[in-house]
Write a structure and sequence with these properties.
By secondary structure, the protein is α+β, with helices and mostly antiparallel strands. It is built from 13 helices and 18 strands. It has a 6-stranded antiparallel barrel. Strand 2 (117-124) and strand 3 form a beta hairpin. Helix 1 packs parallel to helix 3 (50-60) and helix 2 runs antiparallel to helix 3 (50-60). The radius of gyration is 31 Å and the shape is extended.
Length: 459
């Protein structure tokens, strides 16, 4: 076999190939390798490396159960080793060009620190210290906020907006720069988007790739397949038992070419198309089976019940979204979100997303995949903030239901502590009585022994 090399020049060793083969993650591997353009190269540029081709053939014969960490690590290492061009959006020189765009917005961005590490970013929404961030990454009563001017302030949790995975926090300060909202206009595909951080350079830059849409899992159609790339369309690498695809007659190895008359040529395109339909909605799927054209009528399900009926671990099924890095713990179910291709870490979420005019067009709410991040549009954020009064002190905006629940929990804790105290007091009284009885008995015994000793009696 010819020696293949990763783009960096490092050889892909056979033990790692064998380990990945045992993982049985062919669909995920082929999807990532095909989509990323980071194939190992032989002597001929642009031709997938023989080692990778052999690996994928071996992976196809294995069950999709183990090896997630091996595959993710390989992908992460290969991406890190790939030399970056000065024309790439992640190149430091490229990011420097966007400094003027984020100059104002970075003053409204904070780093949220929990236990010494950055948990998320936050967006300042009022001069008196209110800020929005991603709730699932910062679920704590108090956090530390690092501001652009190097101040470090404590922020307290105020309330949660569960549908949006948002948390409202409050710092005790009066001189902050709040975000400047963009006009509530539809953002066309390809609109430039920039994620400011606390420093001069932005965290990432990219474009809007999917228009704002409802991402509630129960309102998104679910086909029930795992997928990979194909020259003709999208390859079905596995049909989940009991899923909509299974009931509609799709099989492993089919190649989907159209959904309801819309041509699909890539995995992301098929996923976006299917998620645009609602559960129980019927769609027509055109596909190829052994090169022959065929058609199926499929009634879509929803993801949660689909995975449950197939007894599938969602973490394994979501692996294709995780290629190249971690994804957010909560990355779906939002009532409305737009999708962009900025490369973010989960800890970069919670901060503002701005257009080229520097105004905030949204708040980054999740890293959903290797080049898929989600943001809540600015108009929805303003609707959320209209439910509170940012001019009032922190207690005026706290959720009364949450406060009542906390008061009830503290009352129960006090009652339990009181019961424990009474029990301990009873135990103390019993032990004290026992000590008194033992001392009295020993004193009587000592007196008796002394009397016997004085009388000269012996037994």
């Amino acid at each position: 076999m010819r020696a293949s090399r990763i783009n960096s020049g490092r050889k892909l060793d056979r033990p790692l190939t064998a380990a990945l083969a045992s993982a049985g993650l062919a669909a995920a591997a082929s999807l990532w390798l095909g989509a990323s353009g980071l194939w190992a190269q032989d002597e001929n540029p642009g031709v997938p490396g023989q080692d990778f081709r052999d690996m994928l053939e071996e992976l196809q014969r294995q069950p999709d159960q183990e090896g997630v960490e091996w595959l993710s690590r390989l992908i992460e290492i290969q991406e890190q080793l790939r030399p970056k061009s000065e024309f790439e959006k992640t190149h430091p020189g490229t990011l420097r060009e966007f400094r003027p765009v984020v100059e104002r917005a970075r003053q409204s961005t904070v780093r949220i620190i929990i236990e010494g590490r950055q948990a998320a970013l936050g967006a300042i929404v009022s001069p008196n210290g209110y800020l929005l961030t991603k709730f699932s990454e910062v679920a704590a009563e108090f956090v530390e906020c690092h501001l652009h001017d190097n101040r470090r302030l404590q922020a307290r949790y105020v309330r949660q907006f569960d549908d949006w995975d948002l948390a409202l926090l409050k710092m005790e300060v009066e001189d902050l720069v709040p975000v400047e909202w963009a006009d509530a206009l539809p953002l066309p595909l390809g609109t430039f988007a920039v994620a400011p951080g606390r420093g001069q350079d932005p965290v990432s830059v990219g474009v809007i790739s999917v228009l704002a849409r409802n991402l509630s899992d129960k309102r998104k159609g679910f086909l029930g397949i795992t997928m990979g790339p194909s020259d003709a369309g999208v390859l079905v690498t596995r049909v989940l038992p009991g899923s909509a695809a299974d009931k509609g007659g799709l099989q492993d190895g089919d190649v989907i070419v159209q959904v309801d008359g819309r041509e699909v040529t890539a995995v992301d395109e098929l996923m976006t198309t299917i998620s645009g339909f609602a559960p129980q909605e019927a769609v027509t799927i055109d596909y190829l089976r052994a090169g022959e054209a065929a058609q199926a009528e499929v009634v879509l399900g929803d993801r949660e019940s689909g995975l449950e009926s197939a007894q599938v671990n969602p973490d394994i099924e979501d692996l294709t979204s995780q290629m190249g890095g971690d994804v957010s713990r909560r990355r779906g179910g939002f009532p409305m979100a737009l999708q962009h291709d900025l490369i973010l870490e989960p800890s970069d979420c919670g901060g503002p997303l701005v257009g080229l005019d520097g105004k905030v067009i949204g708040l980054n709410i999740a890293r959903a995949g290797r080049v898929q991040s989600l943001a809540i549009p600015s108009e929805k954020l303003r609707e959320v903030l209209q439910t509170v009064d940012l001019s009032l002190p922190i207690y005026a905006n706290m959720d009364l239901g949450e406060l009542e629940a906390e008061v009830e929990a503290s009352r129960l804790a006090v009652d339990a502590a009181r019961d424990e105290l009474l029990k301990t007091r009873d135990q103390h009284r019993d032990l004290r009585d026992l000590l008194r009885q033992a001392r009295s008995a020993q004193e009587r015994n000592a007196a008796r022994d002394g009397a016997i000793e004085g009388s000269g009696l012996r037994y």
